[in-house]
Amino acid sequence: MDIVYGIMLDNGSGYNARCDSSLGLHVGDYCVIRKDFYLDYGQIVKQFDAPPPESAPAAPIEEERESGGTVFSAKKNEIYAIQRKATVVDQGKAHENQMRAKSALRITGQYVDRLGLPMKLINAHYSYDGKLITVQFSAEGRVDFRELVKLLSQEFNTHIELRQIGVRDETAILGGIANCGRPLCCCRFLKDFASINVKMAKEQDLSLTPSTISGICGRLKCCLKYEHEGYLELEKTMPRRGELCECKDGRGRVVDRNLLTQKVTIQLENSTHTVICPASEVSVVYLDKYKVRGGAAEQGESAPQKQQPVSGEAKPESGDGTGNAVPRQQNQKPARQDGQNGLNRPHGQQRKPGERPQRPQGEPRPQNPNRPQNQPPQNRPQNPNRPQNPNRPPRPPRQDGGNREGGSQNGGNREGGKPGNNRPPRPPQG
């Protein structure tokens, strides 16, 4: 039966590997692992009870390894095979590789300075058989290190892998002492970095000063994540800041609270005196103006109800100014005179769409005195301010001798019609 182990290398990186249970490996043992094209040397740091799920198509990770123009894509969550348990000879060769890795890191730093690349080298790692050198570095952005890879391949005559890591991974590799006085959590036991935001610090009533909630790496502290759920449970039974509460000393507002001790600080009304009380002895007071009022059940049955008048019935009587009630009925307004057609229409009745007013027979159509009359073309006044174009050619004479009338095109025999229209002339109106 195969057992899956977690392997840790001397440069801080790790991966999973499996082997048969007959090898008898335990946590803390060193072993030799077969990888893509080389052998590696590492220590077992964890044993899995159940094999972790493999990525069904193996997804390529962001880092790429370049060596002499050849690109090797590493696979994420790939499980390698453990070849054997490390012997004394294997341990001696691993120590020799560590010395060679320090020399390779120093030479790489010289090439980085020569090329002027914005990189911070962290460590270097030699594989067990010396076929691959892995150099880890950190940088603010992406770095074009293709020229550096070519120079290092010629210098060491082997494959070179340059891997860029973040500031949290860098701090976990280098280690240090946290603000609490203990070793860093990311260096001791925390291997997976979860997403952390400022909202977690607010919900824990912490000061939002960057120096207080940030770690050595400059990012938010990792402890904000795995303590967040506990603070949410403690906050359920605590009043919020600014709420009006009552305690044994009187009424006041909450100005501070301590989630761990479950105590609140209350400033009494009309006083600058503050008292500290347990949260169990404090009750929140809601003013009447902030309460949500219910329906007719809370208002009582004595509340009068308005009666709406029924359509078609008479409205309540209203006074006429003398104290006497005058009944008023609906739809009893007098008819009005229509100014356009002279017809009497009831009040509220509108003209139907498309309906035209009818003029009594024999009555002439009214004329608008303000309407300008059409003038012949020859009698129209000319605009003296209109500029004349001297280069404009004269207008040719008409073919019909200028005797056309009203749009006719056959010598003026038809009145205002199109050519070929045989309709009889329209009789005069009125």
> How are the strands ordered across the major sheet?
1-2-7-3-4
Mean pLDDT: 75
The major β-sheet equals: 5 strands, mixed, barrel
Spell out the helices and strands N to C. Answer: EEEEEEEHEEHEHHHHHHEEEEEHEEEE
The number of E-state strands comes to 19
Which blocks of ≥5 consecutive residues have pLDDT under 50? 55-75, 295-304, 309-318, 337-343, 405-417
Give the overall shape, derived from the CA principal axes: flat
The level of helicity is 10-25%
Distance between the termini: 116 Å
**Proportion of residues in extended strands:** 15-25%
Radius of gyration: 49 Å
What is the number of helices? 9
Alpha-beta content class: alpha+beta
Please tell me about this protein's structure.
The protein is α+β, with helices and mostly antiparallel strands and 430 residues long. Among the domains are: 2-84, no CATH class; 90-171, K homology (KH) domain (GMP Synthetase, Chain A, domain 3); 172-235, no CATH class; 244-286. The chain is 18% helix and 24% strand. It contains nine helices and 19 strands. The chain has helices at 88-115, 146-156, 167-174, 185-188, 198-203, 210-213, 223-226, 228-235, 296-299, and strands spanning 2-8, 14-20, 30-34, 39-47, 60-67, 70-75, 79-85, 120-126, 132-138, 159-164, 244-247, 250-258, 263-268, 274-278, 283-284, 318-319, 325-326, 336-337, 344-345. The strands form six sheets. The chain has a five-stranded mixed β-barrel with strand order 1-2-7-3-4. A five-stranded antiparallel sheet has the order 14-13-12-11-15, with no helix packed on it. It has a three-stranded mixed sheet with strand order 8-9-10, sandwiched between helices. Strand 18 and strand 19 form a beta hairpin. Helix 1 (88-115) crosses helix 2 (146-156). The radius of gyration is 49 Å and the shape is flat. Mean pLDDT is 75; it is low at 55-75, 295-304, 309-318, 337-343 and 405-417.
